[in-house]
Structure formats: C-alpha cells, structure tokens
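Residues and backbone
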Amino acid sequence: MNRHGHFDALARLLHWGMAVLVMAMLFVGVGMVASLALRPMLIELHRPLGIAILLLALVRLYHRWRSPPPPLPADLPRPQALAAKASHWLLYALMLAMPLLGWSMLSAGGYPVPMVGALRLPALVPHDPTLYAWLRGAHGVLGYALFALVLMHLAAALYHAWVRRDGVFDAMARSGRPRSMPSNETVAEPTPRLQD
C-alpha cells in the first residue's frame, strides 16, 4: 500500500525499472535511425524491450488501481496539479500505445515478430502496405512525443526536488516517510533529571 505520503516498494521498483527501459528504448530508437550498421542488432533489442514495457505498464496500472499514489501537496497550484495528473496518464497511454503500434506495424508489413528462441508474436492486423506506412509514421511521431514527455517528467521531478522541496520526489526516490512531510508521531520530551 502507498501510505504516509510515499510509494510502496513495488511501485518504486516498477517506476525506476521502467524508467531505465524507456530511456534505453528511446536511445535504441535513435540508434536505429542514425546507424545502418547497428540497425539489425538494435531491431532485435527493440522488439523485446517494447513488449516488456507494454507488460510492465499493464502491471503498473493494475498496481496503481490497487494502491493509489500519495496525494500531491495541498499547496501545489491547481494548473501544476492538473498538468501532473495529465502528464502521468499521457505517459501511461504512450507506454501502452507505442509497443502496440510497433507490433501492429510489423504485422501490417508482413514481418514476423520474433521474441526469444522460437517464440513469435501473432499478427495483430492483416498484411496491408498502406496501413503499414500509416502505422510507421504514427510510431515515429509518438516516439518523439514520448521523448519530449520524458524530458518534461524529468524536469518536473527536479523542480520538486530542488526548487519546491515538497517531498514529491522523495516519495518515489526513498522508502519510508519523505523528509519534508511532517510525522504524526509525537516525540517524547526527555525526562528532566533531578539535581543532587
């Protein structure tokens, strides 16, 4: 459960694990466009990374439903609170849409979608060159959108950590109660010693 203004261990593990995977995927995507020599190797890495992100995004959504995140600080301006919620849901939407678009794109192009060993994913859509071209364009555009959104998310995290210092970053970065949030526990006053 997400209690006392911080995320639980599973939420933190999923967040930071997916952050690494998404960043790796973005750099793999850039490498696929920039280097013809590395392209075949990067494509082999791109597919399982995309499916891993898709599956983990579903796990995160389920966990978020079972253990809602801690509330944002009460003094956070309303436009910033709305932007935070909207950007999180947009991140989830893109983490689901990008792998599904890539999988559908390969299916429409008539390409197999091998994973590991003999495991292959079934086609999501029928072979259709026109649909393939459209999905490829959409996959590229949304890739840039995801990259921009990740940069905005990182900037917002640093803003909360270094400027506002309101415990939002600590809630995901550390276990236990964020340092800036007050505790409900009372500290016992030391018992005065009697003078001899």
In short: The domain at 9-173 is CATH 1.20.950.20 (Fumarate Reductase Cytochrome B subunit). The longest helix spans residues 129-164. Residues 178-196 have pLDDT under 50 and may be disordered. The radius of gyration is 22 Å.
